[in-house]
Structures are given as structure tokens and as C-alpha cells.
Design a protein that fits this description.
CATH architecture of the largest domain: 3-Layer(aba) Sandwich
Helix content: 25-40%
Number of helices: 9
Radius of gyration: 23 Å
Largest sheet: 5 strands, parallel
CATH class of the largest domain: Alpha Beta
CATH topology of the largest domain: Alpha/beta knot
CATH superfamily of the largest domain: SPOUT methyltransferase, trefoil knot domain
Structural class: alpha/beta
Shape: elongated
Order of helices and strands: EHHEEEHEHEEHEHEEHHH
Strand content: 15-25%
Bound molecules: 6-[(3-hydroxybenzyl)amino]pyridine-3-carboxamide
């Protein structure tokens, strides 16, 4: 999976590329994150990337030209590398809400370019000429698109076969089955008067699997009933699941 990222703050991405599961995936070349700074595509000596908004108002707007030239540079690099350019995605509160489904769709693309906005906004003519899709990670405003881009890349990289080590499995993750995760415990057996549920100590594997499934269903029904509806619509609930849900 190759990501190209347009950002005024490329150093931020070491949080993704240098640490943990995502860092290892980059090291093993399962994922590659190429960083592109629009300042490097400026022709003026001041390296200007922003200007005041037409119509007035507070805050600056990112200029179309440096961003346009950066995306053109990325597409030229793809051509040189013999890679098919994937879509250009703007991180924006106006975008489609990110989800596990979108993460797996991005993985199938194989290549995606993220544009991370800074300042108040981006010139609309850059958006019209270059942006194929807009994604939001939630209904809130951040100071830039870098953290949303990293959140999305993390979710996608975890899905690359081999990115998770032995004992970690994306298939077991919460949401891969459309439900919330069940509770987890480790040693000690009693902590501050709170015991690990007996069923997890008994070593009866079918019973433990049933308990975990039921806890997932119970928590999801209580906290996110909308996910139960979707799981049902997607055929992810068995007759046993439905019977258990009716018993609650
Ligand atoms: C405004 C994404 C702000 C326009 C980006 C980019 C939140 C999200 C920004 C724009 C962002 C999100 C940068 N804040 N909810 N800030 O995913 O194109």
C-alpha cells in the first residue's frame, strides 16, 4: 500500500512511520508513506502558500497553485515508478464519515493521496481541479488534516496482510465483525477485589467463545443499538445471537 501525503508539516508523520504496528509495516515495506511539502513547489523566495480570503474575514486560505503543483509532482512520480495513481482525498469536516468499511475500500485501491489542509480553508479551485473524494473522521474541527490522515492510514495499514504480528489479528478486532469488542482481562486473577469472570479461568474454549460473543452482543445492544441493526441487515447475526438478544 502506498500513501502520498501533501502537508506543510511532514515531520508530524513520524508518529505514524516510526512507531508500533504502523512503524514496523513501513520498515518492512508493506506500507510506504511519501511526504510532499507544498513549500518545496513554491517559486517565490518567501515560499508563500497562503493568502487573505476574497470577501474578507479572519484567517488565511491555502493558495491553489502550490497545491496544484504538488499533486502534479506526485502524479509524475507515480508515472515514473510505473504505479497507477489512486484518488486524491481531502481530509475535511465536510467529507464522508470514515469507517472500517472505507478503510478496507482504501486498502483495495493500493494507492491514495491525502491532502492535509492548514489555515482556515483551501482555495475552492484546487478542490475542484484535484480532489476526488473528501473524508471526515468525525463532526469536529482540528487545526489541520494531518491527524485525520494518520488515523485513516493507521486503520488501513492494520488491514495489510502481515502488518499485525503473530497473536495480533485484524479479523478478531472489534468492528471487523460489526460489533463492539468484549471485555478483556489479564493477571492478576483478583485486582482490587475485582475477579476475572470464572468462565475465562476454566479453559473450556467453546464456553469462552460463547461468553465473548454474548458480551459483544450485550455491549453493542446497550451502547450502539444502531450497530446491531446494521449487523442484522448484513447477515452477521446467527440464530443463536438473535435468541440471546431476545433474552436480554
Ligand atoms: C477546514 C478534517 C479544516 C477545511 C480536517 C481542512 C477536522 C477534520 C481543515 C479543510 C480538519 C475531520 C483541517 N479538521 N473531522 N481540519 O476529519 O479542508
Amino acid at each position: 500500500m502506498r500513501f502520498d501525503v501533501v502537508t506543510l508539516f511532514p515531520e508530524m508523520f513520524s508518529a505514524l512511520t516510526q512507531w508500533g504496528v504502523t512503524g514496523r509495516a513501513c520498515e518492512q515495506s508493506l506500507a510506504s508513506v511519501q511526504l510532499w511539502n507544498p513549500r518545496d513547489f513554491c517559486r517565490d523566495s518567501r515560499k508563500t502558500v497562503d493568502d487573505r480570503a476574497y470577501g474578507g474575514g479572519p484567517g488565511m486560505v491555502m493558495m491553489a497553485k502550490p497545491l496544484d503543483d504538488t499533486v502534479a509532482g506526485i502524479k509524475a512520480a507515480h508515472r515514473d515508478a510505473g504505479i497507477e495513481s489512486g484518488p486524491v482525498c481531502l481530509l475535511s469536516p465536510q467529507g464522508e464519515r470514515f469507517s472500517q468499511k472505507i478503510a478496507s475500500d482504501i486498502l483495495k485501491l493500493g494507492n491514495l493521496t491525502f491532502v492535509c489542509g492548514r489555515y482556515e480553508a483551501i482555495d475552492q479551485r484546487f478542490v475542484e481541479r484535484n480532489v476526488d473524494m473528501q473524508i471526515s473522521i468525525g463532526d469536529f474541527v482540528l487545526s489541520g488534516g494531518e491527524i485525520p490522515a494518520m488515523a485513516i492510514m493507521d486503520a488501513v495499514i492494520r488491514l495489510i496482510p502481515g502488518a499485525l504480528g503473530d497473536g495480533e489479528s485484524a479479523a478478531q478486532d472489534s468492528f471487523m465483525n460489526g460489533l463492539l469488542d468484549y471485555p478483556h482481562y489479564t493477571r492478576p486473577e483478583v485486582y482490587e477485589n475485582l475477579s476475572v469472570p470464572d468462565v475465562l479461568l476454566g479453559g473450556h474454549h467453546a464456553k469462552m467463545a460463547d461468553w465473548r460473543r454474548q458480551k459483544s452482543l450485550e455491549l453493542t445492544l446497550r451502547l450502539r443499538p444502531d450497530l446491531i441493526e446494521s449487523a442484522r441487515a448484513n447477515g452477521l447475526l446467527t440464530r443463536e445471537d438473535e435468541q440471546f438478544l431476545r433474552s436480554l
